[in-house]
Design goal:
There is one protein chain. By secondary structure, the chain is α+β, with helices and mostly antiparallel strands. The chain has a single domain, classed as Transposase IS200-like (Alpha-Beta Plaits), CATH 3.30.70. It has 3 helices and 2 strands. Helix 1 packs across helix 2.
């Protein structure tokens, strides 16, 4: 899936550890381990921006849409849940 490739590439470039990723038709679940120098808003902006740029370039019919992403996102730390619990949750979203 092209969106996954774009996210993998961006994570690699920025040394973000991608723990889990699930692309669902109307949203994305993403679990990252990131250096605290990166604000969550910066990470989301980079992902959405890079994805929009590449997807519109590769799939010209997407240029007709006013936007590919909503401005919203949810971000949380893993303080109260284990990495494995969150990873399983994201993996279980497949097909929902």
């Amino acid at each position: 899936m092209r969106l996954q490739d774009i996210i993998f590439e961006l994570c690699s470039e920025n040394n973000w550890r991608l723990i889990a990723l699930e692309v669902i038709p109307d949203h994305v679940h993403l679990f990252l381990e990131v250096d605290p120098i990166f604000a969550p808003s910066t990470i989301i902006k980079r992902i959405k921006g890079r994805a929009s740029h590449h997807l519109r370039k590769e799939y010209p019919h997407l240029l007709k849409l006013p936007t590919l992403w909503t401005p919203s996102y949810f971000c949380a730390t893993t303080g109260n849940a284990s990495t494995e619990t969150i990873k399983k949750y994201i993996e279980n979203q497949r097909g929902k």
